[in-house]
Recover the amino acids of this structure.
């Protein structure tokens, strides 16, 4: 499973939506995620990939694609370390 | 330096009230475990400020809403220090909902972080205080006893927190552990900005008899007092820090009562 697929699964599960509606261009608003869904998604992804996503960084995510890109680059950094 | 040689864990001490408490205890000699979850940068900054005071600081990341992470945090403290003297249960979270709109997810999230964590952390803290005595202070809010708009689940969790405080105060008294809580009205912090943005908090200067808003340092001073030996016989209490707000709902602040 790719990183993107894993994150999609996590978010779909937390927000209770069909993962098919989550595209790289989707925003949290598009998939009707509320503030609690967003925090819980961040926390679950942090746990799954053993990374930290500071709220300051998360606020810059324009869409699901940005979220995935951030996780991919930071999980990769962790692999190298 | 009443806390010289003492070790204090302050959950959620990267910012706001937790940070003020950590700095206050450090200024009085305590070594500090700075726990955070979402904001590492501010936690590291707080730790540096603490170290500049000549005491030790250790930053530990932990989501206290997750019992496994609580265990990890206390295992680390046990391994690195082997003891604890002060536990400040400050970390809190919440969802702005009316009681009729609280769903299971909001209930679980808020109760896990604000109430369950308090009990689970206190259980571990008490073990590290074995043979030394100790102090446990939780941070509550007026919302535990009064109804605030869209504060239902947070208020409910704080009411549970205050009950936990009473039970622990009695159960831990034989171990020389003093347990209390501090409840504040709206405190000028980063977290409050959310409530102000949502229009839930008016300028409280207009409603506070004492003439200004409660700031984190006001809470920190009372917490430090409760952690001192001067407060030894205060057990299971929730001390209200609100500039008089809660006891004068019918008197507009800033106006003198006509005789």
């Amino acid at each position: 499973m790719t990183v993107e697929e894993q994150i999609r699964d996590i978010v779909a599960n937390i927000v209770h939506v069909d993962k098919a509606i989550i595209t790289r261009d989707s925003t949290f608003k598009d998939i009707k995620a509320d503030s609690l869904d967003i925090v819980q998604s961040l926390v679950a992804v942090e746990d799954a990939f053993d990374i930290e996503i500071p709220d300051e960084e998360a606020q810059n995510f324009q869409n699901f694609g940005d979220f995935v890109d951030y996780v991919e680059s930071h999980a990769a950094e962790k692999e190298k370390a | 330096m009443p806390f010289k040689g003492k070790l204090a864990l302050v959950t959620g001490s990267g910012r706001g009230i937790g940070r003020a408490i950590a700095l206050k205890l450090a200024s009085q000699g305590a070594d500090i475990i700075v726990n955070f979850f979402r904001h590492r940068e501010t936690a590291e900054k707080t730790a540096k400020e603490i170290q500049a005071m000549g005491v030790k600081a250790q930053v530990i990341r932990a989501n206290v809403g997750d019992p496994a992470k609580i265990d990890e945090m206390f295992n680390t403290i046990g391994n690195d220090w082997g003891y604890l003297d002060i536990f400040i249960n400050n970390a809190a979270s919440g969802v702005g909902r009316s009681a009729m709109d609280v769903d299971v997810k909001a209930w679980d999230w808020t109760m896990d972080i604000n109430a369950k964590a308090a009990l689970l952390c206190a259980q571990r803290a008490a073990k590290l205080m074995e043979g030394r005595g100790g102090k446990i202070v939780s941070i509550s809010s007026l919302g535990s006893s009064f109804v605030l708009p869209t504060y239902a689940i947070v208020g409910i969790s704080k009411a549970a927190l205050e009950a936990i405080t009473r039970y622990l105060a009695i159960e831990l008294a034989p171990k020389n552990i003093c347990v209390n809580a501090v409840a504040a009205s709206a405190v000028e912090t980063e977290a409050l900005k959310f409530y102000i943005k949502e229009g839930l908090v008016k300028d409280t200067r207009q409603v506070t008899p004492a003439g200004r808003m409660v700031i984190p340092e006001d809470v920190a001073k009372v917490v430090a007092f409760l952690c001192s030996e001067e407060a030894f016989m205060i057990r299971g209490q929730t001390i209200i820090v609100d500039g008089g707000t809660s006891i004068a709902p019918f008197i507009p602040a800033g106006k003198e009562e006509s005789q």
